């Protein structure tokens, strides 16, 4: 637990399930004020808000599409109205779909780039604008992926979006470091989220994925949430402009494990 996160206001996009939900719960345990952004209502949302409050935090759910400027601005204004501050903004919302690159439609390309990259730009821009105006030495955290580093056939739009997140993060970190605003990314590997549930339910596919992870297991959302809490805390006060890979070693060329090659 990080004492300095108590009472801080954290906005998390795409926070109603998966990694976003785990982060919302973790910041609740840190006794933070959590703005839970969601796109579509779900049965779990009310329970998530209640769980955050039960753990000692405060929470508000705010609907919004991260690709729309007015919705992102509403996230900032909602946090300011409810809690009087924005200290941490986490661009977590993301989408993916598998398509052979030569068959990828412009519509699918634009959707993934809009959510994953443009959404992160809008969130970062609005958060930084607010922090500058209020003179807050805040933190922006972008959700990247091992695929900002590892090419991923059939997911060229997703990999391109995460490559963009890398340079978005590094450029903003350099630009706003003099103002005490830190900008970092998290690069998860294979994580046991609802979007991956069907894939990992197939024993052969799961075995194949695990074979690419040196540490030997598929990660859980709470393990990514722990990284986010650290990056947002004062324990990471000298850290900016990095992608912190939480991937069980997936980016370390596991095919060479054991001295092969």
TrEMBL record:
The reaction(s) this protein catalyses: D-glucose + NAD(+) = D-glucono-1,5-lactone + NADH + H(+); D-glucose + NADP(+) = D-glucono-1,5-lactone + NADPH + H(+)
CDD domains: GlcDH_SDR_c
Transmembrane segments: none
EC number: 1.1.1.47
UniProt keyword annotations, A-Z: Oxidoreductase
Keyword DNA damage carried by entry: no
InterPro entries assigned to the protein according to its UniProt record, in alphabetical order: NAD(P)-bd_dom_sf, Sc_DH/Rdtase_CS, SDR_fam
EC category: oxidoreductase
GO molecular function: glucose 1-dehydrogenase (NAD+) activity; glucose 1-dehydrogenase (NADP+) activity
The keyword Acyltransferase appears for this protein: no
Subunit: Homotetramer.
Homology family: Belongs to the short-chain dehydrogenases/reductases (SDR) family.
PANTHER family: OXIDOREDUCTASE, SHORT-CHAIN DEHYDROGENASE/REDUCTASE FAMILY (AFU_ORTHOLOGUE AFUA_5G02870), SHORT-CHAIN DEHYDROGENASE_REDUCTASE FAMILY PROTEIN
Name of the molecule in the record: glucose 1-dehydrogenase [NAD(P)(+)]
